[in-house]
């Protein structure tokens, strides 16, 4: 397993090579090379159906490619067993989705803390409180998700993605359902939080408002 | 712990569904626990009650009835047997001990048993207060009777005719409590023990009183009465009993007032003489219906005293005149001491025309079990029944009823299991995103499976816990009621071994009910679920 990345480094946290994924005999993803250093952010932009989300799932190890490698912290994730991959993902990857999937039975605090527990990391209440404070959620810590606004819930999801100090944060269409101001806020919050945690941030989106907001951009086009 | 907390959080998210499932499971569990508690305790009690009794000798009829009446005191006896008929078997070398019991009366639902002190030994009972009876109309209480508060040491009471409440009182002769036994956890705890003579004396007085019994609807419980077919005959004599009843009241008054006793004694004496002039002993057993005269009751009373008294005399080689004995009354005035040493007598010394309800016997050799009962039954005069065999037969019959109740309880459990399954399975669709997210956070497929099983088991355990609690509390309450009203000791604070197995079984039911939803969770296609949003 790789060491945890806590500071900005030029070493790539994520390195993708010759990644191919087919569905029904058709190439969905075909990426020759892509890498993302620690502390950097990258936007993968492309139209709907170009395979952005599939690419994200491949990077997270939720899908198995036809060929190619994905290395996170130099670990070829597809050489790990299913259980090891689950564990590795939990420890080194944080994820934010358009739909937030907060657990309705848990409070804000418990939802955030859950990511720490699932990552099998020592309980760190200080880290949870700091994050909630940074994201303006301290006053809402004991509320259930059902009592939060969409914006508040989105911040909870960001806190959950970062609380276990992942090396890589993956975000899937985090802004697509938001108005311009909110979209910019969320994107900046993600970027700032990832930077302060020393994590690399990969955002896949079809939202052109993201252009120019992150460190690098990677254009994906629909494969005919 | 994480999964337990998550499962709990999820359960309280849908309180109504959870409560319904928990209640269903609790109902099933409580029903089974109740059946287990009652079944095991009754079985143990029955085994304890029959401990030391290998064979019961009684009147022909239903062997189960004989055992239930003579050993468990839970039924009316099939009839009486003559002492003479029992002698041969009691003296058989294959028999080690033979203890006679004579039934017929009760006090506030507690049966009065005429017997010998060996009966107390049979149950290993010890006195906590007072002494054993050593004369007729002295009584020793079982611990449960004393605990009920109905009677205590030195209480004076009149036994009621019949084995349940409602019979008329034997006011003409009253018992005095001379001893109290320590608790044994057996049937003796709920009995009032006295000498055989007490029963003989009382039923000699009331031997003709069957018309009253029928009025009370308990005629068949009298130990001098046989079964229903005989009651028909007794109806014919109803008109005669009116007079006798009046006479009994007169008799009672005589006992209540010391100054009148002399009159009574004189009266008795007078009729003893009449008896000496030709009344046959059979009159007592023929219920005295044929002869109607004003002092019939006293006459028969004396008759019975004669028989018992004569035996005692024989035994002691004492040649006292009956008149002497007839005038011996204890200081309380209620107890006739003519048979002062009756408690010390072996039953074999009594007049063999006298009757008892049954003889409780133990074998001197286990081999007797293979030959003796068959031999007794083959001869036809008496019936021999083995408590072990008859009770296993009863338990088989009862088992059918218990089995039906048990099946119903398991149907409740199955309903609960189906309900848990439906709740989990139905929630899966809504929770697919949550499950996918958990995978993204690092949960393995097996952990998701475990998560759903924990949720099902948690719901099951809540139901089990509630059901076990309810089952035990209800059993305790029922036990308290039975103890107070029937003298049957059942407690809710017992833990039958099978209850542990039951809980394990119910947990397995919970696992099974959750397993299909859990497998569905295991198969969650994370990428597709997340892509679908």
Explain what this protein looks like in three dimensions:
The complex is a heterodimer of chains A (224) and B (533). Chain A has 224 residues and is of the alpha/beta class. Chain A has a single domain, classed as Rossmann fold (3-Layer(aba) Sandwich). Helix content of chain A is 32%, strand content 25%. Chain A contains six helices and nine strands. In chain A, strands 6-7-8-3-9 form a five-stranded parallel sheet, sandwiched between helices. Chain A has a four-stranded antiparallel sheet with strand order 2-1-4-5, with helices on one face. The longest helix of chain A is centred in the C-terminal third of the chain and has 18 residues. Chain A is globular, with a radius of gyration of 17 Å. Chain A starts with 11 loop residues before the first strand and ends in a 5-residue tail after the last strand. Chain B is α+β, with helices and mostly antiparallel strands and 533 residues long. Chain B folds into two domains: 185 residues, no CATH class; 250 residues, no CATH class. Chain B is 58% helix and 11% strand. Chain B has 19 helices and 13 strands. In chain B, strands 1, 3, 4, 5, 6, 7, 8, 9, 10, 12 and 13 form an eleven-stranded mixed sheet that branches. In chain B, helix 1 crosses helix 17, helix 16 packs antiparallel against helix 17 and helix 17 packs antiparallel against helix 18. Chain B is elongated and about 100 Å long. At the A-B interface, helix 1, helix 2, strand 6 and helix 3 of A face helix 1, helix 16 and helix 19 of B.
